[in-house]
Specification:
The chain is mostly beta strands and about 70 residues long. The chain has one domain. Helices cover about 0% and strands about 45% of the residues. The chain has a three-stranded antiparallel β-sheet with strand order 1-2-3, with no helix packed on it.
Length: about 70
């Protein structure tokens, strides 16, 4: 197999508002730099707007190798 899908679902209860999260991750073995993540969010007992703010920190740092150099 060249790729995998990982599914995760959970329900949160914050201040009485229940929200269902369904997350799907795709990771390619043949293309190691390829990872796709899909989020589905459903309010269960309320109506409201859900806003996602994507953030990617490309400032990598490895303490175990490269003598404390950044990638």
């Amino acid at each position: 197999m060249k790729n995998r899908l990982l599914y995760r679902t959970f329900v949160t209860n914050m201040l009485g508002k229940k929200t269902k999260f369904e997350i799907t991750r795709f990771v390619s073995i043949s293309r190691k730099e390829l990872c796709v993540i899909s989020y589905e969010v459903t309010p269960l007992n309320y109506e409201g707007q859900i806003i996602f703010i994507p953030y990617l920190d490309g400032d990598l740092f490895n303490e175990d190798s490269n003598y404390n150099e950044q990638f």
